[in-house]
Design a protein that fits this description.
Elements lengths: L1 H8 L6 H10 L2 H16 L2 E5 L1 E4 L28 H10 L7 E4 L9 H14 L4 E4 L2 H10 L4 H11 L1 E3 L10 H7 L6 H13 L4 E7 L5 H18 L2 E8 L15 H14 L5 E2 L3 H4 L1 H7 L6 E4 L22 H10 L3 E4 L9
Helix pairs in contact: 2-10, 2-11, 3-11, 4-5, 5-7, 6-7, 6-9
Bound molecules: ligand V47.
Length: 355
Amino acid sequence: MEKIYNKIELGERITTDEALRLMEEAPLEELSRLSTLCRVRTCGDALYYNRNFHIEPTNICRFNCLFCSYRRPRGSAEAWNYSLDEIEQIALSKADSGATEVHIVGGVHPDHDLDHYIEMISRVKRAVPGATVKAFTAIELAYMIEKAGLTYTEGLTRLREAGMEAIPGGGAEIFDEELRAKICPDKGSTAQWLALHEAAHSIGIPTNATILYGHMESRAQRIDHLNRLRELQDRTGGFNAFIPLKYRSAGNKMESLGEVSLEEDLRTLALSRIFLDNIPHIKAYWVMYGKQTTEMALAYGADDIDGTIDDSTKIYSMAGAEDQRPRLTIAEIEAMAARNGRTPIERDTFYNPVK
Ligand code: V47
């Protein structure tokens, strides 16, 4: 173990076997110390956040992921599918909020096509011109672009022309193909997710990456997922942030699995920071972890907590997250930073400080 600690202290890359040993055997305080070392090297004492809101156009989805608490079948009283006018109104209602980012993610509605999404993006961009549009998971994008008969770079170029400037990290779930087939059997594949992000990077669109952990996966499968991201990032350099997403168990088909412990969350965060030596930001998404765990995550490699959100997302409240109406004020974020000896930095989507 000492040899592995030394490598990390010297800034050397660790292997997947070493990562597994760390994950299984390192005391929690060592993981905190080492992940903090790596975080300070890359991000100093910054605690990044942004002013953002989400738009979730629909919860009708042609895929049936077992972990999803959000999807409803067409015709259900709890299903929604906003029209382009309604989406524009949501964006206009937040136009004076000071938001610098609009995050758009929803179900993969079988009726919509690329032109629908292009129109959506251009209307949102027109409504909130000062905000960056970060839109659609690789799964939504692969679906709409393949349906249009275009290559990923052609489709992404058209979306970029309409105003899509960055891509969020969702839809990655778990890359291990066998396990992916169990938890989201009909969803877009690992190969599609990776190819879509690679195409985005090749034309200069930055993206994020996620993992869905804490369900049936082994720690080795978690590390394999990180390794595939590290390899892609070596080739492209296009990932801004990695976001470990903890499986939340309420109201979905895997509910009986329950949820993993806080210790497992902290080990996963720390390992992500240590292993992903080429992805600059590790985001503890506060809406999913809740505020208390997010604050602890700051001592395990996280430098970013996402943003103010302004009660605009339902994905996690429907899966049992603490905040049913998620919203953080700048004062709350600054107080969190102060309690943890960190400098709060309001950032834009590309991690430039906002003045
Ligand atoms: O892909 C769905 C996950 C993701 C559950 O890029 C669940 O800045 C846990 O990707 N328990 C969407 N997770 C959210 C996402 C995201 C969020 C915030 C910021 C960014 C970013 C990206 O949510 C899905 C899926 O992996 N998810 N259901 C659940 N029950």
